[in-house]
Specification:
34% of the residues are buried. This protein has one helix spanning 7-13; strands spanning 41-43, 46-52, 59-63, 73-83, 92-102, 107-114, 124-128, 135-138, 147-151, 164-169. The protein has one domain (28-169). It contains 1 helix and 10 strands. Strands 1, 2, 3, 4, 5, 6, 7, 8, 9 and 10 form a 10-stranded antiparallel β-sheet that branches. It is globular and about 40 Å long. With 170 residues, it is mostly beta strands. InterPro entries: DUF3757 (IPR022231). Keywords: Signal. Residues 1-22 form the signal peptide.
């Protein structure tokens, strides 16, 4: 499915990947996912959902950019990630955001912010649980990373269908 990149990415929420983590930290053993729509709420000009992940401080928040309240989320729409290495792109990359259709007719994108650095977005490096559910979002420009989306469809009904394993924050 080809669709234009969300305005959130264009607004600077996508960070260039850093070099691989040399700390040797083992990957998390539990699958994670984008937050369920019922956990997303509007507060102080942003959509937010608290989360516990086995990376960084262990907890944080999924948050949107500042925006007007357009109603509560109706359902999960998609998750977007990009490959950090061409050879690893089909299964490992940076989770960019989780998107939700709102009752007001628009969509909202949420990105992960760790509790230790709440004002700084860091790259959430993940491994996909079911790579076959993630499809090339659009052809990459020469020399650019590939974007993949796990989008709501007949086979993908919830964020749980787009599960991933958090590896680390960069």
């Amino acid at each position: 499915m080809i669709r234009p990149l969300t305005p959130l990415i264009l607004a600077g929420m996508l960070l260039p990947p850093a070099a691989a983590d040399a700390s040797g930290k083992q990957p998390a053993q539990d699958a994670a996912r984008c937050p369920a729509p019922e956990t997303v709420h509007y507060e102080a000009g942003r959509y937010r959902a608290p989360v516990r992940l086995d990376v960084g401080s262990g907890s944080g928040v999924w948050a949107s950019t500042l925006q007007p309240n357009a109603g509560s989320p109706r359902h999960f729409s998609s998750a977007l990630y990009y490959g950090t290495l061409a050879a690893a792109a089909p299964s490992t990359g940076v989770l960019v955001n989780c998107s939700y259709a709102l009752h007001g007719g628009t969509e909202v994108d949420l990105a992960y912010f760790d509790r230790q650095t709440p004002d700084t977005q860091r790259n959430l490096i993940i491994t996909l649980q079911r790579p076959s559910r993630w499809q090339l979002d659009q052809a990459p420009a020469p020399g650019q990373d590939q974007f993949y989306a796990c989008s709501r469809s007949e086979d993908i009904r919830s964020a749980a269908d787009c599960a991933f394993e958090p590896l680390r924050l960069e």
